[in-house]
């Protein structure tokens, strides 16, 4: 009996660290950006600061979870004046809502080897249900998650007052992300 207990304890000591391995965000290789149209011209912008906590199990994707928090004040359009403008109340209202977040509620195997992800997206105090396909691939010891989430900016009150007019800035926005995690 002692041998069985000792063997079980040794096996658990070997397996437990592997089971408890948490994936860490590789900030240098990861990015979150958006694409929108202003006067029908595509504009790319990025968020310089964000965190992602991903608990991914390739064998059981339905048991996987993800949380992403984005520092709205790190939004970068490539021009200091534009950056300052979009942080104002009419746009992101960063003084009151400095963070946007996504929390997954389900993940399951989807078409073409992708995952179908469902979750809650919160921007500017408004939370909506969203879904999108997510590709996952292994690169060495890293996991790489790529996706694109289409949203309507007005659904989150981004662009209030005169900026509700979609003739200048389109309502459609693509949130794109490339997240690399390490063990």
Automatic annotation (TrEMBL):
Origin: domain of life: Bacteria
Keyword Signal set for record: yes
Keywords of this entry: Signal
Stretch forming the signal peptide: 1-20
Domain Lipid/polyisoprenoid-binding YceI-like residue range list: 22-182
Keyword Signal: yes
Protein name: YceI family protein
Species name: Undibacterium hunanense
């Amino acid at each position: 009996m002692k041998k069985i207990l000792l063997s079980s304890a040794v096996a658990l000591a070997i397996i437990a660290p592997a089971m408890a391995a948490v994936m860490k965000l590789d900030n240098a290789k990861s990015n979150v950006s958006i694409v929108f149209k202003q006067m029908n011209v595509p504009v790319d912008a990025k968020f310089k600061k964000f965190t992602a906590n991903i608990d991914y199990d390739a064998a059981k994707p339905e048991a996987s979870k993800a949380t992403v928090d984005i520092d709205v004040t790190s939004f970068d359009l490539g021009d200091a004046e534009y950056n300052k403008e979009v942080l104002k109340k009419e746009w992101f209202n960063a003084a009151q809502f400095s963070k946007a977040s996504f929390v997954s509620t389900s993940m399951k195997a989807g078409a073409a080897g992708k995952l179908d992800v469902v979750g809650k997206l919160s921007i500017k105090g408004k939370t909506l249900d969203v879904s999108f396909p997510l590709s996952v691939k292994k690169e060495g010891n890293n996991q790489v998650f790529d996706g694109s989430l289409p949203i309507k900016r007005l659904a989150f009150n981004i662009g209030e007052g005169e900026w509700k007019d979609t003739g200048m800035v389109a309502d459609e926005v693509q949130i794109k992300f490339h997240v690399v995690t390490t063990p």
